[in-house]
Structure to design on (330 residues):
């Protein structure tokens, strides 16, 4: 277990994480948040409950417009598969725990990494000052002892490791997506997005839950959510998949390989950073790929709210901005 993470530089990058859930009942666009979530009682092992079919085909992975670790572009053949329409919710994960007695890694480790807005003095005092190890934090009490998921049942479960996510998937006879499957589904045959100020529609309105404002000090919540959102608050992609971009990063089953690049030296015109390198160090082969970005990704820090973007995450590190969804290949 790698839990001496607290101030390790590597924590910086992937932990572009998340303030306490501030879930609104409706999105900025008026859609009913959480309505797309499958009811926990409808979860049936070895079924496709809550999933949509992702047709196979030739898929162009990566981007030449984003961070260096996203290129070069690569054409791969992806077989069709079923994928969860939404990120796995607290309510669904609770059903899994009730059925199996599963104890998460955060519970075994005694805590997890949570995001808090630092004051400016704290921000200057240490790297990634917006993350701290919170004793007692786990999926049941994601903001530490005294907090709860009551009223947040349709928000994505967080503070789960890749092993926790895999255990949930196995319970249903499913798996976690490969990086190629995840990206193929997120792109839905659309052209690769260029790196830009954020996911917005033609009228300039945010189309995903990410960070607007000065990271990590001020999240203006222009997109309707300062913190986690219930699943399905924003329009789905062409395949009917919600929140592939933003809200929470999502585990893949793949380990990371290839070149790496920290957030703060991407497109300097867009990513001003805080004058420090944010990126993983050491042996990347021990890290997992996460995809999609989170509510903590911001134009001035982490422009990774795009399907091509990827991040390296310690698979046994439970954090407040990483969740998952499952796939079925039969
Ligand atoms: Ca937001």
């Amino acid at each position: 277990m790698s839990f001496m993470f607290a101030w390790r530089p590597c924590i910086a990058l992937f932990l572009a994480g998340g303030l306490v859930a501030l879930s609104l009942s409706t999105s900025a666009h008026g859609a009913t948040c959480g309505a797309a979530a499958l009811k926990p009682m409808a979860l049936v092992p070895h079924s496709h409950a809550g999933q949509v079919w992702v047709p196979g085909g030739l898929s162009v992975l990566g981007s030449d417009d984003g961070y260096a670790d996203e290129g070069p572009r690569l054409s791969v053949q992806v077989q069709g598969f079923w994928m969860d329409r939404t990120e796995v919710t607290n309510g669904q994960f609770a059903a899994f725990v009730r059925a199996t007695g599963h104890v998460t890694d955060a519970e075994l480790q005694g805590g997890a990494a949570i995001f808090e807005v630092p004051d400016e003095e704290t921000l200057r005092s240490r790297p990634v000052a917006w993350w701290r190890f919170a004793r007692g934090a786990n999926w049941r009490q994601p903001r530490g002892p005294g907090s709860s998921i009551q009223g947040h049942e349709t928000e994505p479960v967080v503070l789960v490791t890749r092993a926790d996510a895999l255990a949930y998937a196995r319970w249903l006879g499913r798996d976690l997506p490969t990086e190629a499957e995840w990206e193929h589904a997120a792109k839905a045959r659309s052209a690769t997005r260029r790196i830009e100020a954020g996911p917005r529609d033609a009228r300039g309105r945010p189309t995903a839950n990410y960070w607007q404002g000065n990271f990590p000090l001020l999240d203006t919540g222009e997109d309707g959510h300062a913190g986690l959102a219930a699943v399905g608050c924003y329009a789905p992609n062409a395949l009917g998949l919600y929140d592939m971009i933003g809200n929470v990063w999502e585990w893949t089953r793949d380990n990371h390989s290839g070149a790496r690049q920290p957030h703060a030296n991407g497109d300097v015109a867009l990513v001003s950073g805080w004058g420090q390198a944010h990126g993983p160090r050491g042996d990347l082969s021990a890290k997992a790929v996460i995809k999609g970005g989170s509510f903590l990704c911001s134009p001035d820090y982490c422009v990774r709210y795009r399907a091509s973007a990827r991040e390296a995450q310690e698979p046994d590190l439970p954090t407040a901005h990483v969740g998952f969804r499952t796939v079925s290949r039969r």
